[in-house]
Design brief:
3 domains; alpha/beta; about 5% strand; six-stranded parallel beta sheet; single chain; about 450 residues
């Protein structure tokens, strides 16, 4: 029908159309780039792409993403779809390669501008470069959306990021500028294309999990409120943060931060609100301090790019890779109860405490003598909160090939078990075969091994 065709053409001429590609930024709140797209475009295609490469096998032979994290991501996308639809918009979801899907959609729908958050990882950035090669004439707008502090607002340039955390922190705190979070955008009109979704993998639910994590913005905001205000746990965070059991020894916000369904600036503004309404103490400062660690590793990852995956200092590499030893570590069958308990928790739930992560990493590198990167790949596969900068930054740190000014840091696992799990309650939760043992026997690997041949 010619009349309709000419009307459409006229509309294309007048209407500003954009494509907003959601990546690890699955939220509507505090999203300046999304707000910019919504205000600039008369019609916006809101798109999420499930890239099958995320589920391929990685370097060490296990999948790059566990079924559990895949399920958490799908929940996050479904929650985003629901929020957008409540605001009268529509989220298009497709399965395939972004460098093929985005150029095709932009050409078919005559879209001129692509908006996408800037990711920290080098692989994610390479995908963007391929899109731009395949669509050389488009306008491209990008911005970091997962940072507490905008990279332009550090008192140093990214290339000059201090290599030591304390120097970084003092410098940042001396000129602290954190922009307040912004509200949700309203979409004038959204356009949509055919949608497809991967099947949600069936994942087991373990009653021992610290929390039943559910992906998406609503669950993230609810956890933030529960931890800070309903439960009033923030006031004692510094004392409890090295805990191992239960939902509230730490914030458990990391999985939502990693999928971008929670803005770190919103967390910061909620810390300030809590300090105003309840109490400002060492604990309220300490949560901010930990967010600065996250920020530090983001800057380090941007500064060093792909070198992060090789280690920032020359490692003394182990002479050989012992597959059986590594497989035992991955299964939580090393014979060292505290290590096994932590790895089993990770395998069953996708979460492990910070104390546990430091111990199992140190044990893999310094006691088993395995390459640190094998552990980092395993964490990448299993963690619900996998984040390229935090994971690889922390692994290089513990292995002595990263940003730790002390190169000889070593965790004595027996002392750590006795200090952080004095009654053995944590070990017994995850290693039922140790139920009949009591400290100090419970921590002793030789006894444990002899009773578990
Ligand atoms: P909380 O104690 O409540 O801390 C609040 C927030 O601060 C966290 O959500 C996180 O965003 C940030 N934070 C806290 N500690 C660190 C830290 N050491 N480095 C960077 N940020 C921190 N964290 C991830 O988010 N993703 C990872 O892939 C990851 N891999 C790690 C690997 C190793 C070997 C180690 C030692 C640590 C790793 N961490 C990682 C950091 C830390 O263990 C987790 O952020 C924390 O345990 C998450 O639980 P929480 O949200 O309750 O933390």
């Amino acid at each position: 029908m010619p009349a309709v065709e000419s009307k459409d053409s006229a509309e294309y001429g007048e209407t500003v159309r954009g494509l907003f590609w959601f990546r690890n930024d699955l939220r509507l709140h505090d999203h300046p780039l999304l707000a910019e797209a919504a205000s600039e475009c008369d019609e916006l295609l809101l798109l999420y792409i499930f890239d099958p490469r995320s589920d391929e096998d990685g370097t060490c032979g296990f999948p790059r993403r566990s079924e559990r994290r895949k399920s958490f991501t799908i929940q996050g996308v479904e929650a985003l779809r629901a929020s957008i639809s409540l605001r009268g918009g529509e989220l298009t979801t497709q399965i395939g390669l972004p460098e093929e899907i985005i150029p095709r959609l932009m050409s078919e729908l005559k879209i001129e501008t692509l908006y996408a958050s800037r990711e920290i990882g080098t692989e994610e950035e390479m995908v963007v470069q391929r899109i731009l090669q395949n669509t050389p004439t488009i306008r491209f707008k990008t911005e970091f959306s997962g940072s507490l502090i905008h990279p332009d607002e550090f008192p140093f340039s990214l290339e000059n990021t201090p290599e030591v955390f304390t120097t970084f922190r003092k410098s940042v705190e001396s000129a602290l500028r954190i922009n307040p979070p912004i509200g949700e955008p309203s979409f004038r009109s959204s356009i949509a294309s055919k949608s497809e979704m991967p099947a949600i993998p069936e994942v087991s639910v373990d009653k021992r999990a610290v929390l039943q994590f559910e992906g998406g913005e609503a669950a993230a905001l609810s956890r933030l409120n529960t931890y800070f205000f309903e439960g009033d746990h923030l006031r004692s965070y510094k004392e409890t943060r090295n805990g191992l059991l239960g939902a509230d020894f730490s914030s458990k916000l990391s999985p939502w931060l990693a999928q971008g369904s929670l803005s770190p600036r919103l967390i910061y503004s909620e810390i300030k609100r809590y300090e105003g309404e309840r109490i400002a103490n060492e604990s309220t400062y300490w949560l901010f301090f930990e967010l600065l660690w996250r920020e530090f590793f983001r800057c380090i990852a941007l500064k060093h790019g792909a070198r992060l995956f090789l280690g920032l200092r020359k490692p003394g590499e182990p002479a050989r890779f012992d597959h059986a030893l590594f497989a035992g570590w991955c299964r939580g069958e090393t014979g060292m109860p505290f290590i096994d308990a932590n790895i089993r928790e990770l395998n069953a739930t996708g979460y492990m405490s910070n104390r546990g992560r430091q111990n199992v990493a140190s044990f893999l590198v310094h006691d088993l003598g395995l390459p640190w990167s094998s552990g980092a790949f395993y964490f990448e596969s299993q963690l619900l909160d996998y984040d390229v900068a935090s994971n690889w930054g922390n692994w290089t740190y513990v292995a002595g090939v990263g940003n730790d000014p002390r190169r000889d840091r070593y965790f004595n696992i027996l002392k750590q078990s006795a200090r952080y799990d004095p009654e053995g309650a944590y070990i017994k939760t995850w290693c039922p075969e140790a139920a009949h043992l009591f400290p100090p026997e419970l921590f002793n690997p030789s006894l444990y091994i002899s009773r578990n041949p």
